[in-house]
């Protein structure tokens, strides 16, 4: 969305819409899913044969937390739900990014208004001064 030509009210409405979207997001989580296969080491097992994918897939959900990698095992039947949780995390991040951008624009608009208001106030003060000056002259 191009925010350049929106009015302050439109920007604030847009920000509110994004906040509503955040509020409606179902639980989300950060992380990446990895499928792993491994060999059990038994000579007679199919996994010992060449070109056999091995046992698995075993799913791991990992993420960085305070510089450490945190991993969690995900059962195969929960992989789809986990993918959705991760997709919602990306959605969450996108909304937050948009919210950051729209708030920058809102802050810019507020600064412009503040500047205009202080200029208006100065004009009024000047006007009063002129009046006072004229009155003293009469
Ligand atoms: Zn095996």
Low-confidence stretches: none
Return the structural class.
alpha+beta
Order of secondary-structure elements: HEEEH
Taking the alpha carbons of the first and last residues, their distance comes to 60 Å
Describe the strand arrangement of the main beta sheet, using strand numbers.
Answer: 1-2-3
Mean pLDDT: 91
Our estimate of the beta-strand percent is 15-25%
The coarse silhouette is rod-shaped
Give a verbal description of the structure.
It is a single chain. By secondary structure, the protein is of the alpha+beta class. It has one domain (8-137). Helix content is 55%, strand content 18%. The chain has 2 helices and 3 strands. Strands 1-2-3 form a 3-stranded antiparallel sheet, covered by helices on one side. The longest helix is centred in the C-terminal third of the chain and has 59 residues, at 79-137. The chain is rod-shaped and about 100 Å long. The model has no long low-confidence stretch (mean pLDDT 91). Zinc ion binds next to loops.
